Amino acid sequence: MTDNPAALIVLAAGQGSRMQSDLPKVLHRLGGVPLVGHALAAGRALDPERIVVVAGHGADAVRKAVARLEPDAVIALQTEQLGTGHAVLQAIPHLDGFEGRVIVLYGDTPFIGEDTLLALSSHTADVVVLGFETQDPGRYGRLVTGPDGLEKIVEFKDADEATRAIRLVNSGVLAADAALLRDLLPQIGNDNASGEYYLTDIPALARASGRRVEVVTCDEAETLGINTRAELAAAEAAFQTRARALALEDGVTLSDPATVWFALDTVIGRDAIIGQNVVFGPGVTIESGAEILPFCHLEGCHISAGATVGPFARLRPGAELGGDVHVGNFVEIKNSVLDEGVKVGHLTYLGDAHIGERTNIGAGTVTCNYDGVFKHKTEIGADAFIGSDTMLVAPVRVGARAMTGSGSVITEDIPDDAMAIARSRQVTKPGLAARLMQALRQKKGK
Ligand code: UD1
Ligand code: CA
């Protein structure tokens, strides 16, 4: 590592026509987050001072997604896709006043490793290109090297037979000194087979002005770009395989690894147990020793040590489970905090609620949190007992140690230690059932 500050430029303006999609390519999801989120997450390893995402096709949607993924990033608009060199040029105004290393990544290339990026950014050459050796160089740009580093990059379309035989190719990732980029980018022309402004002209231009240009290589797998739905599916499989292996290495028990699905940012503590067919959406953290039973779907939630969830539970964004909380089958929890020791055994919906310590929520309880326009909160104190099939019509507050009768529809606050029964009183008519049955059977017999 050097203390050289870093800036990140992520190219994400292309349409990705081979995806056959109305969605911009970089917004297709891998590991639960948009493709561009993977490049941004890897780039975070560089602790960048500036992050610029170049957007074009579907720029509004890309802008929204990037704001969620990386609030520090700014968007540079590239209204016409005139080539990778032109794309990087659009980002330059956003690097005004920045001196240091600029690293260019592609938004559709999700597997670039943090170590690789650190190797690039800490390299002392003026320009560093990330390349890889491959058996099948296909249509990649060819890296032409000499005794003192990289001489030039030749695009496939512009390469002669001898150059096409080169198996050291361009990943697209490049690092360069900011001042040098500002100087060289405007010099790039479009007199080539594609009529595009190639970023890949930078190495030769840098060499011509006496600069040092080098290649850093990485594993081909890191450079995998997504162009089609089939490639996206294959990348998802590769991502999941790696995420499962990492979880196992970290000391997580996966009862049947192939059936557990991870997101890019899933965090699971040591000695947690994950049952079969569990899906993690983005934003899940699970502390050591928690257990997720089979067939659960979790997203944007935190599970504390000692908690058990499922089978068949759904935890949605904002679900926070304290220590030793028990959530059982067919329970859905959204934007709710369950304090230590809460039990929600079965068939329940908790939304926009806070449940105090050790409170028991009976089967079939529902927080009626939505009036069709607004969401409302339900507050339940500690050590309360909510009877089965209670409807809690929010906003409503249930005091500590309070109880509700089964089948109650609670519309008013309940003080501490009180019992609320909100259902019609039972009427029992001796013998009526037998008489009614007899009458009905007689009618049928006629
Ligand atoms: C590029 C490289 C090639 C390299 C290959 C690796 C150039 C000229 N060629 O070729 O040497 O081997 O990547 O995959 O750079 N983009 C924009 N705006 C544009 C053009 C592209 O944002 O005007 C984005 C695309 O959305 C994409 C990335 O830049 O994410 C690469 O563009 P693409 O057209 O796919 O480049 P390749 O032809 O694959
Ligand atoms: Ca490409």
TrEMBL record:
Keywords: Acyltransferase, Cell shape, Cell wall biogenesis/degradation, Cytoplasm, Magnesium, Metal-binding, Multifunctional enzyme, Nucleotidyltransferase, Peptidoglycan synthesis, Repeat, Transferase. InterPro entries: Bifunctional_GlmU (IPR005882), GlmU-like (IPR050065), GlmU_C_LbH (IPR038009), Hexapep (IPR001451), Hexapep_transf_CS (IPR018357), MobA-like_NTP_Trfase (IPR025877), Nucleotide-diphossugar_trans (IPR029044), Trimer_LpxA-like_sf (IPR011004). Gene3D superfamilies: Hexapeptide repeat proteins, Spore Coat Polysaccharide Biosynthesis Protein SpsA, Chain A. The active site is at H346. UDP-N-acetyl-alpha-D-glucosamine binds at residues 11-14, 25, 78, 83-84, 106-108, 141, 155, 170, 227, 316, 334, 349, 360. It catalyses: N-acetyl-alpha-D-glucosamine 1-phosphate + UTP + H(+) = UDP-N-acetyl-alpha-D-glucosamine + diphosphate; alpha-D-glucosamine 1-phosphate + acetyl-CoA = N-acetyl-alpha-D-glucosamine 1-phosphate + CoA + H(+). The keyword rRNA-binding does not apply. Residues 1-229 are annotated as: Pyrophosphorylase. Binds 1 Mg(2+) ion per subunit. Pathway: Nucleotide-sugar biosynthesis; UDP-N-acetyl-alpha-D-glucosamine biosynthesis; UDP-N-acetyl-alpha-D-glucosamine from N-acetyl-alpha-D-glucosamine 1-phosphate: step 1/1; Bacterial outer membrane biogenesis; LPS lipid A biosynthesis; Nucleotide-sugar biosynthesis; UDP-N-acetyl-alpha-D-glucosamine biosynthesis; N-acetyl-alpha-D-glucosamine 1-phosphate from alpha-D-glucosamine 6-phosphate (route II): step 2/2. Residues 9-134 form the MobA-like NTP transferase domain. Mg(2+) binds at D108, N227. Homotrimer. In the N-terminal section; belongs to the N-acetylglucosamine-1-phosphate uridyltransferase family. This is Bifunctional protein GlmU. It comes from Paracoccus shanxieyensis.
